[in-house]
Amino acid sequence: QPDLSLRATATVVGEVAANAPLSHMVNVNNLGRCAITLDPKDRLPGQQPYQGVVPLFGDRHEKLEKLSEVIEHYMLQSEQLDTCLVLAANDQVAAGLLIQRLPMQGVANLDGSGVVRSDEDQIGRNEDYNRIAILASSLKREELLELDAETILRRLFWEEDVRRFEPLADEQGPKFACTCSHERVGSMLRSLGREEVESILAEQGQVEVGCEFCGAQYRFDPVDAAQVFLQPLKQAPGSPGVH
């Protein structure tokens, strides 16, 4: 969101080995696609969100086995920009380092007039970018998960002219935020219809809805469910699970 709040969910179907590469999960037949959609806050009426779609394989139809490789490929195909991305995560930390060659002419990029030829000519050939990308690629998973940003920058780019800006933090920085609420879940139940809700009540004695983003559980007994249909319909939360 514009305020840097974010939420995400992933659903796994079947058994997935702990060391399974990306292709085993989402691209078994090498027909998978990566779609990135940007929906501007100030979008004009009738204006469609921007969407870029690229395959989950490289230029030689080889499978891409890391999410970082998919995003690098997307940036190259969609934005014509060299990108180096290092990602790491465990059960407590998710971290990443992004190195990207900036457009040669930023004005053309910002006004939507497309990629200029000078940008395309620099793909894979910019010596400064290639040097920095090689240094970034040497970053180990353990370092990314355990070290602070200052230490990582100093270790990787100690011979470079590094200019560091203070990151946005707390309420101004990136943060998890879910939009679910008891009221919005009630609106979702109302959209299902009284007959459907009553059938669930008859079978289970209550309606239980789990948010797939934050894990919150919402329970409606017969009295709560009856109250739902007395309320005006409002927007429902995204991707709830009804049990």
Read across the widest sheet, the strand sequence of neighbours is 8-7-9
Number of domains: 2
**What are the segments in which pLDDT stays under 50 over at least 5 consecutive residues?**
none
Number of strands: 9
Mean pLDDT: 85
Number of helices: 10
Which structural class fits the helix and strand makeup? Answer: alpha+beta
Approximate strand percentage:
15-25%
Question: Could you state the order of secondary-structure elements as H and E?
Answer: EHEEHEEHHHHHEHHEEHE
Tell me the major beta sheet.
3 strands, antiparallel
Q: In angstroms, what separates the terminal alpha carbons?
A: 29 Å
What best-fitting shape do the alpha-carbon axes yield?
elongated
Q: How would you describe this structure to a colleague?
A:
- There is one protein chain.
- The protein is α+β, with helices and mostly antiparallel strands and 243 residues long.
- It is built from 10 helices and 9 strands.
- Strand 4 (83-89) and strand 5 (94-100) form a beta hairpin.
- The model has no long low-confidence stretch (mean pLDDT 85).
Q: What is the gist of this entry?
A:
Helices cover 34% and strands 17% of the residues.
Notable features of this structure?
243 residues, alpha+beta, 17% strand, two-stranded parallel ribbon, three-stranded antiparallel beta sheet, 2 domains, CBS domain Like, 9 strands
